Amino acid sequence: MSSQKPDSDRRHTIAVLVDNEPGVLARVIGLFAGRGYNIESLTVSEVDAVRGYSRITIVTSGTDMVIEQIKALLDRLVPVHMVEDLTVQGPCLERELALVKVVNAGESRIEALRIADMFRARAIDSTLNSFVFELTGSPKKLNAFIELMSGLGKTEITRGGVVAMARGSGIGLQNAKS
After folding, report:
1. CA–CA dist 138, 95 (Å, integer)
2. Which of these, 112, 148, 140, lies nearest to 127 by C-alpha position?
3. pTM here?
4. Which three-class secondary structure string do you get for 79-144?
5. CA atoms of 61 and 133, how far apart (whole Å)
6. Which of 17, 136, 154, 164 has the fewest Cβ atoms within 10 Å of its own Cβ atom?
7. pLDDT tens figures, 74-117
8. Positive or negative, the Cα torsion across 32, 33, 34, 38?
9. Residue 159 and residue 98 in contact, taking contact as beta carbons nearer than 8 Å
């Protein structure tokens, strides 16, 4: 049982199945912006070329009431076929991609390679004074890696946003509206 108060903000990962057509993403984002809700992470890509569907994964925070309102508003948008709150469905898998450039020299370079090996990051570019590492994992794992690399030199970071999927044998697309 969680010790969290029911009215406190909680992080939620919401998956939305939409038509892959111009303007849909703008409408979804506009729904958040128009009500002052924050999007912490946003990813979108086509997932079914035959039916013309894209999947939008949104990470946001809010009270239970706010999250319910967001889901209801999303579900009413015409190009939306399905809305799933992966957070309340039980355990879900979340992964994110990051590219992390660290500029350093000497022992710091050796330490950067050691840390990268521990985190299973892959060096995808190397110069005499920099590395670019590719890393996938949970947002917490990426945050820890970035924090350690920041202590070894100047860093530049780009992140791809969270993608998520419910665990188990259920298939979310089965429940899509026709």
Report:
1. 5
2. 112
3. 0.82
4. CEEEEEECCCCCCEEEEEEEEEEEECCCHHHHHHHHHHHHCCCEEEEEECCEEEEEEEECHHHHHH
5. 29
6. 154
7. 999 889 999 999 998 878 899 999 999 999 999 999 999 999 99
8. positive
9. yes
Going by their DSSP bridges, the two strands 53-62 and 92-103 should be labelled as: unpaired
Backbone angles phi, psi at 93, to 5 degrees: -95, 130
Distance, in Å, from the CA atom of 99 to the CA atom of 146, rounded to the nearest integer, reads 10
Rounded distance between C-alpha atoms, residue 134 and residue 127, angstroms: 15
Quick check: 118 and 145 in contact, CB under 8 A?
A: no
Task: Give dist(CA 164, CA 161) in Å, integer.
Answer: 10
Residue 8's φ and ψ, nearest 5 degrees, are -85, 155
